[in-house]
Fold each of these.
Amino acid sequence: MKHILILHTGGTISMSTDQSTGVVKPSSEHPLNEYSYMFDKEVRLTEEDILQLPSPHMTPEHMLIVKKRIDAAIRSKEIDGVVITHGTDTLEETAYFLDLTVESVIPIVLTGAMRPTNEIGSDGVRNLQSAVWTAMSDNAAEKGVLVVMNEEIHAARYVTKTHTTNVATFRTPTFGPIGIVSKKEVMFFQKLIKTEYFPIEQVTKTVPLLTAYAGMSGAFLEALAQTGIDGVVIEALGAGNLPPATLNGIQLLLDQNIPIVLTSRAFNGIAQDIYDYEGGGKQLKNAGVIFAPGLSGPKARLKLLIILEKSSNHDYISEVFEIT
Ligand code: ASP
């Protein structure tokens, strides 16, 4: 019999709607605890309320707490898979943080809910069930951390929340989900070529994230250069270009050896050094800007935060951001 550890961290999946006011609030008791009957006797579940946070309150330090609990579970050799319930707003960030920092020899699956547990058509119980089934699947191991929502299985590296309220919110732009949960069957159709592992014990660095826009000046970057940041991620325009007025700020940061990592603010596709004009990707790369092909801005930010714990060497950072 498989032994699955469920770590509850909060989010809508642990909240209910106040029937008189209609607002959504944390429940005093985790509403999913009473649903363990849905797994018959096929699985042993151990549940822990490790955090109780709306996911906009989640920080990398909280993610580290979850990581360390999973590390301990793996070390114990008593757990066959881990499910983490999480608010959907930052679920993809915790998922990717764990993807990079846990040596995932057993299935690690995140799930959440778009609707509180006491609302009609609530998706929490179903998502939890699908996540547990996925964590029980031998095929789910060594595929990196997974996100299971709305009967789809996504790789943590590329999944993102795409809708504010719809239950079909989690999507993987460009690449698609890697599997599905259909009825009770867990099926995989593709997998990442390579997974990555950066063992860290702490998160101490400061890495802000900016989004580029038409007419952007270098003022934010110049101001950031004064604040002692360790790195910065910019969601650039299109294939990876910036307005020319930002270039002074870019140069100022590069002169201080502050790594600048570039993603695209476009929803599909990857950032690349294609254009050779002022602010174009080719010139940015030649100047020392590092491209993060395939990653969203928030995920590139987490990756930079994590790898800076090991090294701030430009060549090392460029190498780990090459597509894997
Ligand atoms: N705002 C909620 C949260 O992320 C949304 C959710 O869980 O779906 O905690």
Amino acid sequence: MASPSETKPAVETTEAQIAVHWREEEYLHPAPAFIGQANLNDPAVVERFREENFPECFREYAEMLHWDRYWHTTLDTQNPPFWKWFVGGKLNVCYNCVDRHLARHKNKAALIFVPELEDEPSVAVTYQELYTRVNEVAAVLRDFCGLKTGDRVTIHMPMIAELPITMLACARLGIVHSVVFGGFSGEAAGLRAADSGSRVMIYADGYYRSGKPIDHKSSADLAVEVAAQEGQKVDKVLVWRRHRGQYLSQKPMVAGRDYFMDDVLKDYARRKVEPVSMDSEAPLFLMYTSGTTGKPKGCQHRTGGYLAYAAGTSKYYQDIHPTDVYWCMADIGWITGHSYIVYGPLALAATSVIFEGVPTYPDSGRPWRIAEQLDVNIFHTSPTAIRMMRKTGPDEPAKYNYHFKHMTTVGEPIEPESWRWYYHVVGKGQAVIVDTWWQTETGGFLCSTKPALDPMKPGSAGPPVLGIYPVIYDEKNQEVPRGSGKAGNICIRNPWPGIMQTIWGDNERFVQQYYSKYCRDKNSKDWRDWPYFAADGAVVPNDGYYRILGRVDDVINVAGHRLGTKELESACLTVPAVAEAAVVPIVDEVKGRMPEVYVSLKPGVSDGKQVEKQIVSTLETMIGKFARPKGVHIVPDLPKTRSGKIMRRVLAAISNTMDTGDVTTLANPDIVEVIRKQIQGEGPVELKEGPEDVKRFGENE
Ligand code: WTA
């Protein structure tokens, strides 16, 4: 910890309590036609989910599922903060998302896969076909791979229908899947496979992106090698082929290790595998995410509570009915895709669209052609995608004949201007919008308006969702009152069914990261003493609409993807010429934030350009292309405190043309002006106010 005099900003407030000034936006109201048909249009629901009715209120979500055995205890708090939900209950997630819909919906599309190449037709997979295919894949996992309930499997795949099919096959057997976003490198996938102890990895040979085939299987060899270095032997790699009988990868298949799924499946045609009745508390999947430390952590989600929460929030907040065509543009490799492309929508027997490509290829009308062609009526995307679509095709939506009733924005704060374009142009003024705030850890939404019941307010996520009771605390554990105009750390006071169980293999870190900061009494078995620390800054005015300001830890939210500063810095430090590295967020008009890298070099290194290139390629191979920095700056030295801590806050201020504050107490104050001139030029510059998360960046060091 640096001493307070070294880190204190010029203004006299506690660090978490920076005052936030922004214009209050006007409310907009959902259209009567939407309200009439909405799943959640009875205001009495608010009563049912009042704190007095917690935790039993969550039965309402669990009852949307089929249970093989009913639970006896809704919430068990005996071992805080390791909450248990629907204890004693048994169910199977795959049965709930597939088998139980066959009686009424077998001929209805469960998934519609839309290839990126427009001349390749889309593929609808009915619930009956999904059932057949999931069973066959489950047979391969069990009988060909020898996998059992509780084993882990790492799935490194792009957006093709075989991804949810593989996930559901795992869920059918109680195999814990760990899906790694397709954009991650082989090395990143290998590290995650090792951490989860996966001996089977599942790949696709390739996919299309911006019109070009991408060789994806080529990352498998590195993944297997990195896993082995970490002590984890991967003995089988199953490879789905994007086009049957054709191989999109340049890398040869490794005999005895790599198998084409279409070949293996021939021996398992029409096989049926009974769904394994799972304990409500059995782990369903892991989803790795970045945090404060260098190593990504495996958020472990439970079977019963997770599915109940995904289904309940999908029904009430996404307004999904079995007759809807729902398209969420996120990637299944992130939590949004798990909860709101796969599990939530399928639990409700909806039709879920899976789009392989980018929304701007071959032109910016593509998303709206898809919407028109498939008659999509619920649309879900992120502020980054909204900004990108607005920039490249501001007038495109009007050219297409589609009608959304409901739209979601998720993943980052959205600026009111982008919100308004989304509302008026994409939604044509007819669709209701929900701005949903939540996290990988939380399984489902935490704040959102109830689409038919609450007015919308551009730029604010809104009130807490049903059964969630948040609070904003400052750094001194004092509650920041509503309407004070002060920001603080948003916490959730109570457990809820979607919250992760733990960090895979690291209970201690789970407690440390999320519960130690505001725990009132470590010996208490009362959930009221264990608020969940979300690591987001927030502010709440008198109307109770939470406005999320962004991360307060060292996580940079790049286009809605979480990247840990420490993770990026450790990658930079593997470049031999680099002596020291610091990564800070820089505002980007499309991606929200991007990483910017500052490094100092070891003595005697002269070719700076070469080092810059090495840094970029190292970030791409160790993490993935989406981690590419906006800039790499080679500087003579990094600003440091007297105790030797790198002052990332000062660098973030320089990158974003903000006030660097008082730097006189640094060990090397003169370097600040040197770096400033190098980045901003010699002349005077006009300083900007800068967004809240950038202002607060690095404050907890
Ligand atoms: C940010 C994505 C503002 C937030 C579901 C959070 C948001 C992080 C919103 C989690 C929103 C997510 N408004 N910020 N509606 N939704 N965030 O784990 O900083 O990939 O902590 O989960 O994204 O990102 P994650």
